[in-house]
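Practice problem: predict the structure.
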Amino acid sequence: MGRGPSIAGRKGAEDARRGKVFTKIIREITVAARGGSDPAGNSRLRAAIDKALSANMTKETMDRAVKRGAGGDGNDDMSEIRYEGYGPGGVAILIDCLSDNTQRTVADVRHALNKHGGNLGTSGSVAFQFSRLGELILVTPNQADEEKVFELALDAGADDVQSEDGFSTVLCKPDHFEAVKKVLAQSKLKIERSDIVMRPQNYAVVTAEIGETLSDLIDWLEDMDDVQAVYHNGELQA
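Answer:
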């Protein structure tokens, strides 16, 4: 019988994953701070700091990233790039990146797509299939919680609430995101995840085999240092 990974090995892997998460969040804070170092007047920075707090990042680390982005601690050379392409089964994919070397990043993204039966598209080739929306996912284990989220979210300016399998997804316009989030945060219900996302308008149904390849591709992309977020319209066949 083979032996599983040692405690030290598991801890090393967890530390590596945590390090990648921190690197991505620091980059996000740095770029967001270009729009102003005060989170009260910079919603993007406020959202990035919320992510940092959820990941237990220290205030000192956050402050350094803000100073760098705002120009107080050297020049920031990160570029924001969105790549569009297709994955296995013709699934539409958006890949948001922050990079200090765009030639390296595009080569890595193209390689990942090609290796999984996809290809890199031109700008605008798939973005029209997605809408930019605020998305909040809350834990709602019973019908009373679902109804509470529904009422609070819609009163706060949300456009839609979808509940399934113990979770409720709240969708709103980006301009309403902070107001909706504030109301829901005060409700004492657990917010599992909240962000401004690119949400597909329609889904492409794929087989289990293609779904597995797609999942491998998403994992590959998300593991890349330069990739901040990956969105796709693939849906597993029922």
